Amino acid sequence: MFRPYELFVGLRYTYSKRRTHFISFISVTSMLGIALGVTALITVLSVMNGFQTELRDRILGMTAHATVTTSQGSLKDWRSVAGLLTGQPHVLGVAPYVDGESMLSNGRLVSGALIEGVSPQEEGKVSDIGAHITDGSLALLKPGEYGIILGRDLALALGATVGDAITVVSPQVTIAPTGILPRLRRFTVVGIFAVGMYEYDRGVALVHIQDAARLFRLQDAVSGLRLKLDDAFDAPMVSRALASRLPAEYRVEDWTRKHANFFRAVRTEKRVMFTILTLIVAVAAFNIVSTLIMVVTDKRSDIAILRTLGASPGSIMTIFIIQGVVIGVLGTALGVTGGVSLALNVETIVPAIEHLFHVQFMPADVYYISEVPSELHWKDVWVMASVAMVLSLLATIYPAWRASRTHPAEALRYE
Length: 415
Known about the structure:
Elements: H1 4-14, H2 21-60, E1 66-70, H3 78-86, E2 91-106, E3 109-118, E4 133-135, E5 147-151, H4 152-158, E6 165-176, E7 179-193, H5 198-201, E8 204-208, H6 209-215, E9 224-229, H7 235-245, E10 250-254, H8 255-258, H9 260-298, H10 300-308, H11 313-344, H12 346-357, H13 378-404, H14 408-411
Parallel strand pairs: 3-8, 5-7
Antiparallel strand pairs: 1-9, 1-10, 2-3, 2-6, 2-9, 4-7, 5-8, 6-7
């Protein structure tokens, strides 16, 4: 049964007397170790959450929440399908698209790219690519004028700027009396976009959907339909529901499946970092073992006196568990306070450090995310605090059990 004197004695042992400063120093070291470990956990995971959100937003800037296609790669009756999907729950927008691999050339510079045909009037319903166009606009893509908007890195690779004429080579060929000839079409660069993802900035070019249909000989058909949903995270569930309402030849694919390997890698990295940093907390927490063992050795005579006054082994064990838990609680509280404060101010602290020391941790010419983002999830904070507390509690059990096994006669024999 818990009694107030156990709490009093346990708290009293947490403070040092003049002859036990070293033990108190180890207690403070253990406390600070737990605090630093928890702070590092919260900060690192918050930064990883920020990077994950930033990359997801950039991917969704070019990718719709879901797409509807067929196994043949073309959708002929897309207008009727679009009308059917527009009235479905959770669907906010529908837009057709045409895509196909091609080769772009500008003089002697050649590069492969994915040509995406979009409707300037309807593309804004399903993506925010228009917000990423740094030079020009989607409105400059007009049917029959063969304008093209290049990704920033693709334009650099081709040495092309706005106003230049480049050649687009379609993989389809034309059979002529002189033999098999590739299909060529001259396009004029009318814009440049920069999403911030190398996959898109280096390998995607936008044209008008009608020009793309002529280039790939789709006539009035399209490659598929893009959908925007009211919640991107519900895309898998909504996609399955839409697939059940469409004929069997239609396929509905959500954005999580297209980028499954990427987000799986991010989740795996986050788990690995959590495990590694938890080991730091564990090392600091188990320093409590050495602290309490030294306290038990130093307080053997006190323990013996308490036993002779009627204290039970359970009471002695409780006294030292309280001491270890106090160290764990204070260390965890300091760590949570420091970690939350740091995570909420990373985007301010990092630029200040860069300005102070004249360095740049993530140069814009190397990394596409040149600022360190941070997104604090309170669920992560509670999990980390709980882990630290559990490890601290486990670290107290053995020393407290050793203290409860002290025999008064043996402890006082040489006193």
